[in-house]
Amino acid sequence: MYNFEFKNPVKIIFGKDTISKVVTEIPKNAKILMTYGGGSIKQNGVYDQVKNALSEVELFEFGGIEANPHYETCMKAVEIVKSEKIDFLLSVGGGSVLDATKFIAAAALYTNGDPWDILAKNKPVKDALPIGAVLTLPATGSEMNGNSVITRVSTTEKMAFGSPKVMPQFSILDPQCVYTLPDKQIANGVVDAFVHVMEQYLTFPVNSPIQDRFAESILTTLIEEGPKVLANKKEYEAAANFMWSATVALNGLIGVGVPQDWVTHMIGHELTAFHGIDHARTLAIVLPGVMNIKRENKKDKILQYGERIWGINSGTDDEKIDAAIAKTVEFFESVGLPTKLPAYNVGEETIAKIVARFEKRPYKLGEKADIDFRQVEQILKDRL
Amino acid sequence: MYNFEFKNPVKIIFGKDTISKVVTEIPKNAKILMTYGGGSIKQNGVYDQVKNALSEVELFEFGGIEANPHYETCMKAVEIVKSEKIDFLLSVGGGSVLDATKFIAAAALYTNGDPWDILAKNKPVKDALPIGAVLTLPATGSEMNGNSVITRVSTTEKMAFGSPKVMPQFSILDPQCVYTLPDKQIANGVVDAFVHVMEQYLTFPVNSPIQDRFAESILTTLIEEGPKVLANKKEYEAAANFMWSATVALNGLIGVGVPQDWVTHMIGHELTAFHGIDHARTLAIVLPGVMNIKRENKKDKILQYGERIWGINSGTDDEKIDAAIAKTVEFFESVGLPTKLPAYNVGEETIAKIVARFEKRPYKLGEKADIDFRQVEQILKDRL
Fold this sequence. Notes:
Two copies of one chain form a homodimer.
Chain A: E1 4-14, H1 22-25, E2 31-35, H2 40-43, H3 46-53, E3 58-62, H4 71-83, E4 88-93, H5 95-108, H6 116-120, E5 131-135, E6 147-152, E7 157-162, E8 170-173, H7 183-201, H8 209-231, H9 236-249, H10 263-275, H11 279-293, H12 299-310, H13 317-334, H14 348-360, H15 373-381
């Protein structure tokens, strides 16, 4: 394996009826801004649980953060942070609310010009407001990392940044939040977590048996538990196992000392930027194309994945790879995510626009940095 | 799975030629006390690497920390910490040096009476000096947790304590340190890490597939990589995989939300206290006895372990359990650790002394807290 550094100081508070613990985790005498999304937390009781726990605290609210959170929305929150002299951000919601909160935390203390540069120019985050999280939706893993993805509506750009400064101080994960999620969000969460693992796993071998087996542990568990949650979302144990899988899928541990890909995400972000397709659905579309077009680069790991996850152990290498792709597609479709572009009414025209964007970028993608705009085109055409 | 909390802020710096990074990790202008053991770091070059990296730093030294580190030795270091106004401890060595350093860190700032009470009376550690570690021996996992085990020579007592306050700020793991280890220490390290996993895994099922599979990942990797390291200790990749396995075996992650046992350690500590048997060797002796005597309590997990780790899937349950125990014994013996008491010249007399000790203690042991001194006797007699 490669040399690596790893540090993840996020405190996880996991389990049934844990949301009220938020009061013991926030700093004393802090002015808190509670951030949330479209209001589902008001229907499922989480809003009330948080408000009740924090009844003695000076609490401001900023609701209305959308899926694929907007830069423009975040900047409105930054104004409140500054005008109200907020000193702690409490994210109550899923990965989008948390990603937005991370950007708000960094932008509020950014003194080096336009905060958009954090996203567009990879400007370093030297300081950020402290963050806590109450997670209501297992999917992104944002609750235990320093990553964030933000969309700028005015330019239809979806950009990522990462910094240890925006890792939550704590994240509270009550699997009962799954009970009231729409099926679509559960299915998206399962696939999102699955592809997070694949981005760190399906590259080329560097003799990293612990990382590989941990990754395979999460994939197998998502394949087992995801359908159980969809069949009965009030089955606590399945919800808990799904929720913990999504967290460990992207808390850094399975990615230490190994090559990482992330081209599926990079291409997927463009599909969301142009068409507003749910993030996880873009991953379900793109990943099979990446596996097919990069089958030589990824040969050893696709074969390992096929054998250890799906029991594929007969045929030629190409047949085994085809079978591994087919099983992956079948799994995504079985939980309700179509994997071809036409199912989302996306065609050649969008592919051309996305390819044009990648053509302008100075870097190549993938674990071998060998994917240029031409291969992006091949990958997307594979999904027509 | 059970509710849980998890926080592990230790920064891991892992890989080839990483020891010189120590200079960027220690606090500026700190007075450092470097702690180490019997001098092997002077033979393998680690001492020189650390000294060279810290040539500009005010560095004091405290060597001579023994395996199963002594309370009496630690208290000598505490005197130096106080007289020299040390404000950072740098452990350079294996788990024993690090465990000692943790106790020194806590004892130096303990103001509530005799520091022995931290061990003997479970007194809380409210503050401790910050610690950094350069790890030279994969085994105990102490580099990424807040646990420590200390022996008091005057009373032949071996006691443990744990506190987040004594988690290292950073731990540097260069697998090249394995190149010069004696075979015996490598074999001990493999078995130590293996049994750490088993203490957290071989209990009863609580529907925790991620934790179970992560645990199985580590066991399988130790079984594969351990013999490779013993066959050629200069094979970097095997050394690295062994080293990372030992760390993740006891950094808390596989133990979240699941019952834990630790009776093998509790009994093993007594064998070390009375006879000075290497810690890992005591575990190799005791674990098969625990598996045999607690075969009903642990039935489901022993069967799962047998099938997933050793491919045991035919016979009656009792036959499968016998086979799983036999495979475990065979593995320990194959790396050179005898698993029966007579091989260490220990007989009935010692068993009687150990049983008498447990008889005086007010608590029962094991994941179901149902192991009393009588069962301790059965377990030890099983190993005659």
